[in-house]
Design a protein that fits this description.
Layout (H helix, E strand, L loop, with lengths): L1 H5 L3 H14 L4 H14 L2 H14 L4 H13 L3 H13 L8 H12 L7 E4 L3 E5 L3 H21 L11 E6 L2 H12 L8 E4 L4 E5 L4 H20 L5 H13 L3
Parallel strand pairs: 2-3, 3-5
Antiparallel strand pairs: 1-2, 4-5
Helix pairs in contact: 2-3, 3-4, 3-5, 4-5, 5-6, 5-7, 6-7, 8-10, 10-11
Amino acid sequence: AFALSALGREREALEAYDRVCALDPRFLPARRMKVVLERGQRNLREAIEDAKKVVTDFPKESGPYVDLANLHLLEGRPEDAQALVRSAIDWGIPAGTLEEAQHLVTRALRGPLWPKSYEYKSEHYTVSSDINQRICFEAATLLEKFYTKFNLHLRHVPPQEKRVFRVFLFSGRAGYDAYTRDLIGQEKNNTNGLYSGLVKQLLIWNLPDFENMMRTVRHEGFHQYLDRLTSDAPVWLNEGLAEYYEGSKL
């Protein structure tokens, strides 16, 4: 199963892990790897249900809690992830083994901890920045216009998805680099912005060329929108459409 996964043959690997788990339900590594592959090959809800079963079967192991917390983040439910981490500690799981998961949950809930920040809330977006209020308004207005365009061209975000899109605009490259490094463990060199599907945040830094910055907002905004429709779009489709909408006009 592990070899098939390493070869990129995920569907066959998942079938092999199914057989392993049926033979020995108490073999934790196979149970956890099955959840990881389910996330990519089946659907997120199915992966979450299996992850909950692993937590129930192994209540004293920290790994299953971390797996389930990450799935809740991918689902866009950081509050559920936070509640899970707290319950794990109550169950006696050492807090140190959950530190990384707790850190991601905090980032997902709060975003950057700026000394002074500004915020503008529109119908579908909450834009925060340490630059000024005007930039928050302009970015939110642009994103709302393209949200309408995405709906017309593609597919509506499911009606049950009531949560807003989170956007953070950084006043400088240094702050952007520090936050992205803290979030994903490495700097995203030569990027003007990015969308994190794990914490559901669009991150842009204050480019010297305002129009270039707004192009980046449109590009990354598409990634954020598509993530609500599907979590496993092919890279060529995701990036290709983002490039198209980056340069498109209303």
